[in-house]
């Protein structure tokens, strides 16, 4: 099958725009994995909850999805912090397996609570700019998706700066590899765990706000995103911020191009093909540390 | 400065320390000697809050600190440079040192960093390198440098000479002597008896989780019982 260069270019750019949001979701997942060494199974449910948060703020209070960032980011940071400090931490008794099960339990509770409140209907947010486009040369790009792209990149860069430059960021990286050493320089390890969890939740809250102008929400929507995000985390290297960003953009393009060539419904085949290839040939991921 | 009274501590209900008492005065260098497995590391871990004491008390700077968590104890100026260094391998040498002033002496960070680099010139050369790529001796210097960054009142050094070549051990003891000259109290927990006693003002000998000998370092060095106690003969 042959397509004109314009169509392929459009598909690639669309893939990059979707991929940036994937990357943002993967960032939260990889950060929590890198520091707490667990897969947060509640990550998808958190995303779903944040997307419903955008919906409710919009329909009940008329708050624009982008303005909702200012409300939902601190709220989800606080929720993530509290859940780690008050539920996951105490329930884990220091065992990673327990944390895994606790996050799985939280995911089930959150999803079913949303199902009970909102039913299984699919809903979306109406915005005046939902269908507006930006013309670049002879390409038409969806304005909210361009915003989502730059928003996601900005968050990734901000997160990287926090980790690289601030004492809190250095403490997070220190705890990731050396808990005892961290405690002995005066770092409160439980606080750092909770902050990390909070940052992970804040990442999906921002992703939800960037997604809602062009996407829909139902109580199961987060699962699909997190499955892709998990692929990105493995592709980029577990715990690698740069890997999550590059991996996210790459997976977005793969999905878009395989959708173009194989048909929309088969777009995800490419993603999981890559997932299998990475596991076979480079299990530490593109940016992962050698075992 | 530090006063430990009848301290009992251990892991999972099994006591390792069975009633230890010792003191470190201001500006004093005190050696705690003993063979492998007599409880030296447990003693340090209990003092610095990594392990909970089951009985006895620890008083630092006039305040009871047993029962406090490790970060709270660091904040009070008792800094423990652990056995095995526990540096942050994924952070640069400079970042490791910066985190040494995470809770203490943060406003003096730049000045203290310069001081540590003066004491350990090798660390300045390797400032931008990942700490995990340093040699064992350099990692030990980094661990001590990180401890100094918080301007401690008392520095506990746990087996600083472990795994280092004799040449490096000489160098390390020379540096510790230099640091102690600045008036900082040091508790040096070591297997290396001869060099520790040369450096210390006073010393305690641990056997089986209890203090069996103590006194001025010079007297202990001359005491034939020491060798016997130490070698378990």
Automatic annotation (TrEMBL), chain B:
Q: Which GO terms describe its biological process?
A: L-amino acid transport
Keywords, ordered alphabetically: Amino-acid transport, ATP-binding, Nucleotide-binding, Transport
Question: Is Glycosyltransferase there in the keyword field?
Answer: no
User: Which PROSITE patterns does the record associate with it?
Assistant: ABC_TRANSPORTER_1, ABC_TRANSPORTER_2
Which Pfam families does this UniProt record tie to the protein? Answer: ABC_tran
**Annotated ranges, domain ABC transporter:** 2-233
For the keyword Transport, the answer is yes
Top-level taxon of origin? Bacteria
Q: Which InterPro entries match?
A: AAA+_ATPase, ABC_transporter-like_ATP-bd, ABC_transporter-like_CS, BCAA_Transport_ATP-bd_LivF, P-loop_NTPase
Q: Which GO terms describe its molecular function?
A: ATP binding; ATP hydrolysis activity; branched-chain amino acid transmembrane transporter activity
Which family does the UniProt entry place this protein in?
A: Belongs to the ABC transporter superfamily.
This chain belongs to the protein called: ABC transporter ATP-binding protein
The organism is: Salinarimonas ramus
